[in-house]
Automatic annotation (TrEMBL):
It comes from the Bacteria. One of its GO terms (molecular function) is transaminase activity. InterPro entries: Aminotrans_V_dom (IPR000192), PyrdxlP-dep_Trfase (IPR015424), PyrdxlP-dep_Trfase_major (IPR015421), TAT_signal (IPR006311). This is Aminotransferase class V-fold PLP-dependent enzyme. Coiled coil: none annotated. Keywords: Aminotransferase, Pyridoxal phosphate, Transferase. It comes from Spirosoma agri. SUPFAM superfamilies: PLP-dependent transferases (SSF53383). PANTHER family: L-SERYL-TRNA(SEC) SELENIUM TRANSFERASE.
Amino acid sequence: MLSRRKLIKRLSSGTLVGGLVGGALPITVTAAPTAAPKRDLFKELGVRTFINAAGTLTYMTGSLMHDEVLEAIQNGAKEFCLLDEIQDKVGAKIAQMVHSEAAVVTSGAFSGMTLGLAGILTGMDLKKVEQLPHLTGTGMKTEVICQKAHDIVYNHALTNTGCKIIQVETAEDVEKAINEKTALMHFLHIEADKGKIMHEEWVALGKKHNIPTSIDIAADVPPVENLWRFNEMGFSFVVVSGGKAMRGPQSAGLLMGKKDIISAARLHMPPRGFNIGRGMKVNKEEILGMYVALERFINEDHGKVWKMWEDNTAHIESAVKTVSGVKTDVHVPPLGNHTPTLRISWDPDKLHLTGKELQEALRKGDPSIEVGGSGPSHIGVTVWMLKPGQEKIVARRIKEELSKAAV
Ligand SMILES: *Cc1c(COP(=O)(O)O)cnc(C)c1O
């Protein structure tokens, strides 16, 4: 069905057949020409598609791009331009939007970490750019300091440069760990509460010793303010995923930060090919798609979206609670994946079903549904990746399976 906006767009571009008087919109718009997709590639390939009640998970292909993003990608695909020029111009706009000195679209938050650190290590020295990831004998720094609780798998993005991670726990540890080999102090927002040092202190420690600081906020919008909060706080660079809640291309993200770092990071990026970042290519379509996704996300009515998430969560909650022995609660993770998160749990004496079995039943059902994590007698559900109306299907299917298990 055509949205009102699209209809208006089609009307103004003259592609819709006439017969409308004085701008009055017809009540039924279903007769408008809708181009049916010629091929259903998922079907053709036998790839299972599903309703995503789990979240913005990489292995479930992240999020669905908004129509505006798809439009940007489609239009972008029809012209040539210089890769550097489009990065320059989009980067300047993005920097304004996120209150940083500079920015660049990367192939995700992970590559943003690699490229940001690479830029710090080499500066604008092309010989050094070519030398990475081999640091020995080059005069480049070799160590990144990170709190133990923040040292997760994604730090491989940092060690890809040849650097090693030095774990610390206290501010005193940081002071001791800093030496002439220290390139960067890295922070992981989603685990901020698990470490002993919080953001401001981390930045202050870096400033005191003249060491750049970085932060990974990959999955940590909403709230939208996080896009500029850490740039304003003084982190030297910040990385975020484009293909999670922002609903840009899954293979895009943002590297934001100090001008000198971003300029140097660019030397490690395509079209240049003498560097560790050549395989982290972002095409012009993704660059434009990311730009539009960011713009749309910033301008979105976040209050309205939040209300919709709450309503849809409540709908599922009230449906499944009618099954005797079922309990629900909603919590909002404060640091990342910040969205109402429903936990549906049950009394194992009343319902003979494990979380895994329920997950599997929903997966195998028609339509297939993926839910979040499961435990012995609970599952998790989020609604932020649902298409309008899917909350009803999710509510009905979960209730059905729970009812079947009642003894
Ligand atoms: C998702 C994620 C990443 C990787 O982000 P991409 O945009 O997929 O490269 C890095 N760090 C954290 C904490 C993440 O959640």
